[in-house]
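Weekly sync, protein design subgroup
Attendees: M.S., D.O., the rotation student, P.L. (late)

Item 1: inverse folding check
M.S. brought a backbone from last month's batch and wanted to see whether the design step gives back something sensible before we order anything. D.O. pointed out we never logged the input encoding, so this time it goes straight into the notes. Structure tokens as presented (101 positions):
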């Protein structure tokens, strides 16, 4: 993983938020942008290049899924913008109506 301009506490807080408040979004992102037929997905972290998930597939196997940002992160504010973009893009790919975030 490449270096981030913020520390592990921020990464842990982002993962906790994604897993607590956006678990369904994690699955959509993995399915549409990560190329896996995930039935569940947990955000395990991120780096400057991508958000990382542990996806569970229909057969019960697990796979790490890296979904790249549009550009490398330079600050924490970019994370929210990029995650919203990923979610909206995933909804468009899968034909799902996005909720307001």
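Designed sequence read out in the meeting:
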């Amino acid at each position: 993983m490449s270096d981030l301009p913020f520390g592990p506490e921020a990464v842990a807080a982002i993962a906790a938020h994604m897993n607590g408040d956006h678990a369904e979004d994690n699955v959509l992102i993995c399915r549409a942008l990560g190329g896996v037929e995930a039935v569940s997905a947990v955000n395990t972290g991120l780096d400057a290049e991508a958000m990382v998930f542990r996806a569970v597939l229909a057969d019960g196997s697990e796979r790490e899924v890296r979904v790249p940002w549009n550009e490398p992160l330079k600050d924490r504010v970019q994370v929210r913008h990029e995650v919203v973009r990923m979610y909206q893009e995933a909804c468009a790919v899968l034909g799902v109506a996005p909720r307001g975030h």
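Discussion: The chain is about 45% helix and 25% strand. The CA atoms of residues 39 and 80 lie 24 Å apart.
Action: P.L. to compare against the previous round before Friday.
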